[in-house]
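Feature request, filed as a ticket because there's no other form

It would be nice if the structure record came with a short human-readable summary line next to the tokens. Right now we just get the raw output. Example of a typical job, pasted below so the devs can see what we mean:
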Amino acid sequence: MFNSDNSEQKSPQKRFLFILGVAMIVIFFALAIAVAFFGDQMNLDSEKFPQKYRIAFSVVLIVYAAIRFFRITRDNRL
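Raw output as currently delivered:
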């Protein structure tokens, strides 16, 4: 998945940005799961934010997290 044969070491800034990017992917994915499956427990108003919109919002968040994941994996190979 990640290129491990790279002999040069990353700068602290690149390492920090990589960790921040991975953390954001996890946050977006967790938010999508929470909104989709635990919306009622989070007191989301069913009239203002119906179930079909919650599912659609969760799908958008998961797709966005996947795009960010592939961008990080592509940029890490350089």
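Something like this underneath would help us a lot:
The chain is about 65% helix and 0% strand.
The CA atoms of residues 49 and 60 lie 15 Å apart.
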